[in-house]
Write a structure and sequence with these properties.
Blueprint: E1 9-11, E2 15-19, H1 24-29, H2 35-45, H3 55-60, H4 67-74, E3 78-88, E4 94-104, H5 105-109, H6 113-119, E5 122-129, H7 130-135
Antiparallel strand pairs: 1-2, 2-5, 3-4, 3-5
Length: 138
């Protein structure tokens, strides 16, 4: 797998989906990025971090006291992530597999970066609610 495997933008009727390897600069420069999300990025998110920062590193180290935390919570952001679990196989042999889960930003921020690292959490996708994005006051 390469970094480009997690650089994508998709949308359906209800949500926008962003691969976490995308940087804010790439999202702002891409003409396919939802215009309202670009405005939120310029107005609120890029002020705190370098535009070259990836979504993954920003979300991984995000804490509740940062202004971006309120923005992501207001947008109804959810994060698709992979959590390692131990599965018992044939003859009670244990295998480590990754289980895909979707957490809210608040759930992700409840853990410190060290706790996330200790648990082996790997972020893969940012999901934004279109309805909450339309209601968000810029």
């Amino acid at each position: 797998m390469t970094d480009n495997d997690f650089k994508y933008m998709l949308q359906d009727i209800y949500r926008l989906y962003f691969g976490v390897k995308s940087s804010y600069r790439e999202l702002l420069e891409n003409e396919d990025t939802y215009t309202r999300f670009k405005a939120v990025c310029r107005q609120y998110l890029v002020k705190d971090v370098d535009p070259g920062t990836t979504l993954e590193s920003h979300l991984y180290y995000l804490t509740p006291d940062q202004p971006a935390a309120e923005v992501y919570a207001g947008l109804g952001a959810r994060i698709k992530l992979n959590v390692p679990v131990v599965q018992k196989g044939l003859f009670r042999k244990e295998h480590r597999i990754y289980k895909e889960e979707i957490w809210s930003v608040e759930e992700l921020m409840a853990l410190t970066a060290q706790q996330k690292q200790f648990r082996g959490i790997v972020l893969s996708e940012l999901q934004i609610s279109k309805r909450k994005l339309r209601e968000f006051v810029i």
